[in-house]
Amino acid sequence: MLERFERFLSAISEIDRYWHKIAGDEMARYGLKGPHATYLVAIRRHPEGLTAGQLGECCGRDKADVSRTMATLEKKGLVVKEEVGASLYRGVYRLTEEGLAAAGHVCQRASLAVELAGKDLTEESRAAFYTALESIVVNLRKLSEEGLPQ
Q: Could you tell me the mean pLDDT of each successive run of 10 residues in the chain, 150 residues long?
């Protein structure tokens, strides 16, 4: 069992490391870093815009990270914040035209990376892999919320 756990953690860690390297290489053309790609993709999926709280939820980041990242993306002209009501924290972030182009580029490149990474998988093994990953995520989320049983 311990060997399976170590293989699982090692594989997830390597996937994460290589993915962030690829994302970083792609985002360098915009003078940005890999994690910025996640935000661009999230906002692109929601053309009506997202609040900082919603972005944090979508991207799995805390408020401070969302705030820093959005400030960077605004400075680069990729997003705009449209205020809603009197509160500064209720604004909605939307992509600019340049941001839409960048997010489209990121999505195309991410699709290519996923396609090439899974090129040796059959459709059946790919479907089983994604089903297994989803199950693992759901179970780990539940365990992290409820704690490990005694």
A: 83 91 91 93 94 92 93 96 71 94 93 92 93 92 92
